[in-house]
Specification:
The chain is α+β, with helices and mostly antiparallel strands. It has 7 helices and 7 strands. Helix content is 51%, strand content 15%.
């Protein structure tokens, strides 16, 4: 499936709001995890039925409901009915080709962005869509599969570390976004280390494998740029949003998050320029090597031109040729050829042609 654009032919011409799963089914059965907490109490359970969590939307505690698996349309539809979600929101949740963005609805905010991981063996970035719905006291997250980068946040909630249990659900949403952006920076750093190591290889041994690596890194950086630039745009919009769902105490953290995402964009641009420069250096090195080869071949050709001329004259079939019957004529010809080669090499060296 294409990485930069995902469009299922089943969705073409359909009514807006129709739920059609567009993506790869990554787990067999969707799972539901719920963490409900306040400063003193904590409930951390796996839920068998989504109906068991609907009443939490009206409680005073903070409730984080995480759904793994987007292919079960009936489940997504029930969640939409239970939390009064717009049909377009549900459509975006099951359409895994969404661009990172934010939408404001009556009573909740809707975020879409990408969670990423880096495979060292294939040097390729893998991503999955994460949808977040922020309500007054609840937070819904929708993931394509089990496994994410949020385990440190879960531990902070369980062990009451920091301020996460003392503030509202909007701070939890910020924490998730912050973790995702931190992971972006981590992946960029990993890629950057490998990109910077290419420079010495390009200068010392510019082979075909290096060219493949440059193109691979350019592809991954382009994919990162597409995703992180869009995420930076919606974080900018979120940091300036005037909403009752975002407390004033959370605003400084969102501005700090904007700085992180902007830094990620800047670093990506830097590495993309570096890769373009590496490609130019590679082409220059290859051209220089080709020029050296051509120079050597040209020198040898120039040396053999007079020798070939002499050999051509004495290789003719005329009977009367000067010195043809001379006893030492052959050796004299070889001596003349050697003298010509010697003086030509000396001339080339004086001109610094090699």
């Amino acid at each position: 499936m294409a990485r930069f654009l995902k469009k299922n032919e089943k969705t073409i011409g359909q009514v807006p709001g129709d739920l059609i799963f567009n993506g790869e089914q990554k787990i067999e059965i969707p799972t539901i995890q719920m963490i409900d907490y306040n400063q003193s109490d904590l409930t951390d359970i796996n839920v068998d039925s989504i109906n068991d969590v609907f009443h939490y939307k009206d409680t005073s505690t903070a409730t984080w409901i995480n759904i793994n698996g987007l292919h079960n349309i009936d489940l997504i539809r029930k969640i939409g009915q239970g939390f009064n979600l717009h049909s377009l929101v549900l459509e975006d949740i099951v359409n895994t080709g969404q661009r990172p963005h934010m939408e404001e609805y009556d009573g909740y905010l809707f975020f879409v962005l990408k969670m990423m991981s880096y495979d060292n063996k294939t040097c390729k970035i893998h991503s999955e869509q994460l949808s977040i719905i922020l309500g007054k006291t609840f937070l819904l997250t929708f993931q394509e599969k089990i496994g994410d980068v949020f385990d440190p946040i879960r531990e902070r909630i369980r062990k009451q570390k920091g301020r996460i249990r003392k503030v509202g659900i909007d701070y939890l949403a910020y924490s998730l976004l912050d973790t995702i952006v931190d992971n972006y920076l981590f992946i960029i750093e990993r890629l950057g280390e490998q990109i910077e190591e290419l420079e010495s290889t390009i200068l010392e041994n510019p082979n075909q494998e290096v060219l493949y690596k440059i193109n691979d890194y350019k592809r991954e950086m382009n994919y990162l740029s597409k995703t992180i630039r869009a995420a930076n745009e919606f974080i900018l919009r979120l940091s300036r949003l005037d909403s009752d769902l975002i407390q004033e105490t959370t605003q400084p953290f969102l501005k700090d998050l904007l700085d992180l995402s902007s830094q990620a964009v800047e670093v990506i641009d830097t590495y993309r320029v570096m890769l373009s420069d590496y490609l130019n250096i590679y082409n220059s090195q290859i051209n220089n090597r080709l020029n050296e080869i051509m120079k050597v071949l040209t020198i040898f050709s120039a040396i053999f031109i007079p020798i070939t001329f002499i050999a051509g004259i004495y290789g003719t079939n005329f009977y009367f040729i000067p010195e043809l019957r001379f006893k030492f004529g052959f050796y004299i010809m070889l001596g003349i050829m050697a003298i010509i080669v010697f003086f030509m090499l000396r001339f080339f060296r004086k001109k610094k042609w090699f």
